[in-house]
Design goal:
CATH architecture of chain A: 3-Layer(aba) Sandwich
Oligomer: heterodimer
CATH superfamily of chain A: Thiamin diphosphate (ThDP)-binding fold, Pyr/PP domains
Number of strands of chain A: 7
Order of helices and strands of chain A: HHEHHHEHEEEHEHEHHHH
Structural class of chain B: alpha/beta
Largest sheet of chain B: 7 strands, mixed
Strand content of chain A: 5-15%
Number of domains of chain A: 1
Shape of chain A: globular
Number of helices of chain A: 12
CATH architecture of the largest domain in chain B: 3-Layer(aba) Sandwich
Low-confidence stretches of chain A: none
CATH topology of chain A: Rossmann fold
Largest interface: A-B, 42 and 39 residues
Shape of chain B: globular
Largest sheet of chain A: 5 strands, parallel
CATH class of chain A: Alpha Beta
Radius of gyration of chain A: 19 Å
Structural class of chain A: alpha/beta
Number of domains of chain B: 2
Number of helices of chain B: 11
Distance between the termini of chain B: 31 Å
Helix content of chain B: 25-40%
Strand order of the largest sheet of chain B: 3-2-4-5-7-6-12
Amino acid sequence: MYSLEFLEQLYRTIYTIRIFETECIRLYRQGLIIGYFHPYLGEEAIATGVCAALRPDDYIVSTHRGHGHCIARGGELPKMVAEVLGREAGYCRGRGGSMHIADISTGNIGANGIVGAGIPIGVGAGLGIHIRGGDQVVAVFFSDGACNNGVFAESLNLAAIWDLPVVFVLENNQYAVSSPIEEMSRVPDLHKRTEGYGVPAYLVDGNDVLAVYEKTSEAIGACRKGKGPVLIEAKTYRHGGHHVNDPGLYMPKDRLEYYKARDPVKLAREYLMQQGQCSEQHLAAIEQQVQEAMEQAVEFAKNSPEPSVEAFVKEVERN
Amino acid sequence: MSEKESTSGPCGIRQLKYREALNEALREEMRRDESVFVIGGGIGQRGGSYKVTVGLLDEFGPRRIIDAPISEASFTGAGVGAAITGMRPVVEILFIDFTSLIIDQIVNQAAKYRFMSGGKGRVPMVLRTQGGSGNGLAAQHSQSLEAWYYHVPGLKVVMPSTPYDAKGLLKSAIRDDDPVIFIEHKLLYLTEGPVPQDEYTIELGVGDIKHRGSDVTIVAWSNMVPRTLAAARKLAQEGIEAEVIDLRTLVPLDKEVILDSVRKTEHLVIVQEAVRRGGVASDIASIVQAEAFDFLDAPIEIVAGKNTPIPFNVHLERAAVPQEADITGAVRKVLHL
């Protein structure tokens, strides 16, 4: 049994991710956000559960679908919204955008526009810990799509031979952009690949925040003690296409409905009410607070200045 | 060696091989800073294909001298990740040809991280590699690919030609907060030159006049420097005084040392081993014509490799890249002799 405080914190995080993505999609439709925006809707339990099991001095490596990881790690909404709006007050001063948010202050090494590229970078953070000594760990988020890139195999092996403190978090949302995993791999249970590398693997329901938290805590234990890397495969499903402008017509309706019925936010809400004995009133208050925080973040971002073109031109002249 | 960089009297100067000078630089920087480590293929017990890391495993142990599997993309990526989180990795890629396997980590990750993070992140990593032809290693082990990295904002590119420069520049590269592509030349490893006993560093982005002259400026880097110096000696016998500039680093580029010399000599020859098309020489020529056009007495001559993969046969290999006679020929042409 978990305390009300703990369950409330989990719910606050998972609900914040949901609201951030929902609100940003609205801003996107209004033309305030441009470029690519990859929502984490439907996958929120993974970032929330994994990051709840981490310590403040641990690292995470994120992906192009990275807003959830950043929020779960304690990222600040005003800086995030400002960044996806391309403003100077954003995490990357408007130079990075949705796909490149990094928050060094929370150990978030960064999102990445290249599928799979974060995996070796995470291994490198683990290598640094290994050389310096200490019991930090690195949680490396990546997707089923990334598993078919060569660096996945290479990186698993590097982390294994050097016993690096890396938790590979495989968010299997079952699509590489639009290609279903059944067509991209003969064995859709991707965690089975780790056996040949000597890396212990765990399979977990990626829509169940407590299951993710528990499995991650268990897996991290050994990793923190210097026993080498682990992999957690969290099975989940996107609530929409690859990015905002992809309607995801290739996603079978019945399957989508199945996963929507197992909505991670709804499950977390039930945990909070049943296990945490949280009242409807208190729950409504939490949701209200999150919504207000998001509204304030959007207001802040909308009213914050664009980066100065003159300053940019001056900056890059030195290059 | 220019005077401002020399920190030792004549008695403190030894003759060292290029590869020994590099070894000293690594050793000194690893002693100086615990966050420096080296990772690459066969660099530990074996000491590297070109013996640059010999003895380092014994002194620093396997945690800091790391033999990696043939997983170039991932151990380079590991360097990037370690650098972001506070380490100073020196990643060794055996041949610059193999950097085709790590382009994503260098171009999309290392080069852009500082910029994309709004200036908050740093990637203080050195990628050591070697290139060039002349050893009969054929098309996949002999290329000169510096233009690839010269082209990408966010990277520094260093190409030393002497043991003295190699040591001082590698030390600066390791201390630099941005990713540095440090390109050695396979024909230079056994060349010898004076290296002071006392510690010194050489600032990145400062070219060096390796031979003074007033008739023509010849710009070169890496292994084209000794070849150009040999050409300059030959030209001197004919009464032509060539000024030979060794750029030493391509990014940052020491534009001023080139322009100052061209304003004096009014003639410019640029020598690169890399293929002619899309090379650094073309870019330097464009800079000089834009900024010193009025000083030029003749069109700029570029001596470059032919637009071909490097052939195996020794005669063909020689024909594919600039030789001494090509350089003297270009000088005579630019001087209308």
